[in-house]
Amino acid sequence: MSEPILSLEAVETDIAQYHILKGVSLSVPRGQVTMLLGRNGVGKTTTMRTIMGLLRNKAGQIRFDGAEISGELASSRCRAGIGFVPEDMGIFSALTVEENMILAAVSGAPDRARLDWLFTVFPPLKTFWKAPAGTLSGGQKQMLSIARAMIEDRKLYLIDEPTKGLAPAIVSTMVGALRELKRQGASILMVEQNFAVARALGDHCVVMDDGRATWSGAMADLATDHALQERLMGLSMEAG
Ligand SMILES: Nc1ncnc2c1ncn2[C@@H]1O[C@H](COP(=O)(O)OP(=O)(O)OP(=O)(O)O)[C@@H](O)[C@H]1O
């Protein structure tokens, strides 16, 4: 098996005086979708922010595409090929959709064909191309946030709760777009609280509890084992 695109080994991160990540070890295989699951407050977002370099790990290793990146700035990690869709979406409300997209393309002007493809995946972005991003609906802002990460081919996509707070119809658009990204062979690490979405997209999953990764395995194994779900996450989620 080829080397994972990303691996964490005993990663520890503090936020202020709090010890949040207590030794996270996980790996993300190339060309597959890995779901990061767990109850509220166990450290999923902190893990994503630590991988991106927005928080510094005080111990452990983060290897991305064959290199140790713990010492790198977030901007270098972005240039090295990590695309990040943060939980708060990270878009610029006062700028237009177009300007938001241009700023997201780190290696120059956005590619026309890639933009056309994104317009087919997220049609509202074309409709509101010249509108300030702040005027978009919640679902359209989430589309913009994901499209910004997809504007260039990234080696790894980190996507934090892309369906949070969205109406069911928008959730299906989002799942369709992420399926499209998956179909192209993207490597993705995604936090997702909606288990039906996690099951629809995930190949693998890593479950966290209290600042550590406590289980990893095939999504299909977790999806069909309610007792395992109960043990790992405290509730059995209808895999619906
Ligand atoms: N700025 C902060 N200051 C203090 N504690 C924080 C801060 N940010 C996060 N935490 C704490 O870190 C822990 C992990 O938070 P994190 O957001 O990583 O969890 P999560 O698994 O993503 O949760 P959720 O599913 O609710 O988003 C929580 O106990 C949270 O209260």
Automatic annotation (TrEMBL):
The organism's place on the tree of life at top rank: Bacteria
Gene Ontology BP annotations: L-amino acid transport
Listed transmembrane segments: none
Keywords: Amino-acid transport, ATP-binding, Nucleotide-binding, Transport
Location of the ABC transporter domain: 6-235
Keyword Nucleotide-binding: yes
UniProt cross-references to InterPro entries, sorted A to Z: AAA+_ATPase (IPR003593), ABC_transporter-like_ATP-bd (IPR003439), ABC_transporter-like_CS (IPR017871), BCAA_Transport_ATP-bd_LivF (IPR052156), P-loop_NTPase (IPR027417)
Gene Ontology molecular function terms on file: ATP binding; ATP hydrolysis activity; branched-chain amino acid transmembrane transporter activity
Lyase in keyword set: no
Protein family membership: Belongs to the ABC transporter superfamily.
Protein name: ABC transporter ATP-binding protein
